[in-house]
Amino acid sequence: MTDGLIRNTERLFDEKGHIFLLALDHAQSGVMPGLEHTPALLSALADAPLDGFILNIGLAAHLARAPLLRKKLLLRSSFGGSNLADTYAPAHLNHVSPETALAAGADAVLMMAVIGGEDYQSLQTLAADIDAFHQYSIPVVVEILASDFSKTATFDVQYHGARIAAELGADAVKAFYVDNFEKVVDCCPAPLILAGGPKDRDINAVARHAVECGARGFAFGRNIFQASDPLAVICSLREILG
Asked: pLDDT digit string (tens) for 65-91?
């Protein structure tokens, strides 16, 4: 790891070693409730206690001007197809180049590791793309998905997937909450960021336990932008993270 990559990765996290991101990248697969007007949502949450946002390249420019200029940009670099497709993509391929990420002012990029099935298609490409971004000292955050998406929030997928991502060079891993989450964190040598959150549990309780297990941050989407009061949810989670 180069000095520049070390520096840029450390700068993702605050002085307490934490990061809190609002994921707004979901609409790349089609319009999602709560994200009909993402620019308006960004403006409404400009003063919220968030460290930054996860965005697709088409909306990244909204962080290039006040009042969002100081927020971190985690740029989604991969694409898995639309929600109208007949099949789920076996690999989420990257379409954003390191040069484009630098031009957009991205603080890091987010790409997907699809685990299971013929996952060499996903993982070999992932490893090569991590290497390509590291040539420019751009930190890479890897999110763990299952080839059968319904199995994404299962222990085996998150436990093995987080470790695989770290072994392939991920600078941080975005993992979903599962039972025995402490084992996922403990076995992952890269900083672990809690993804989303289950819809059938109290999100504050899940977040609190994840932090107790050693999670370094949150990257939540629908539990925030589909909430009746997104700002209240953000403030509650920020207090938990510290």
From this structure: 999 999 999 999 999 889 888 888 888
List pLDDT tens digits, range 191-202: 999 998 677 789
**Contact in structure between 95 and 78 (CB atoms under 8 Å):** yes
The total number of structural domains that make up the chain: 1
Q: Is residue 80 part of a domain?
A: yes
The domain spanning residue 93 has which CATH number? Answer: 3.20.20.70
Residue 192, Ramachandran bin (φ over 0: left; ψ between -120 and 50: alpha; else beta): beta
**Torsion sign over Cα 148, 193, 123, 77:** positive
The answer as to whether 241 is a domain residue is no
Domain that holds residue 185: 49-223
DSSP state of 198: -
Give the strand pairing for 192-195 and 52-55: unpaired
Q: H-type helices in the chain, by residue range?
A: 3-10, 38-44, 98-103, 120-134, 155-167, 181-186, 203-213, 222-225, 230-241
Structure token digits, residue 100: 């484009």
Tracing tokens 């891993």 back to the chain, one arrives at: 173
Distance CA 180, CA 212 (A): 12
Q: How is residue 146 written in tokens?
A: 């299952």
Rg, Å, the chain Cα set: 16
Let me know if residue 54 belongs to a domain: yes
Residue 200 has φ and ψ, to the nearest 5°, of: -105, 15
The pLDDT of residue 239? 98
Which helix (H) or strand (E) is 92 found in, with range?
none
**What tokens appear for 205 in the block?**
């309780």
Is there a contact between 89 and 46 (Cβ–Cβ < 8 Å)?
no
Report if residue 171 sits inside a domain: yes
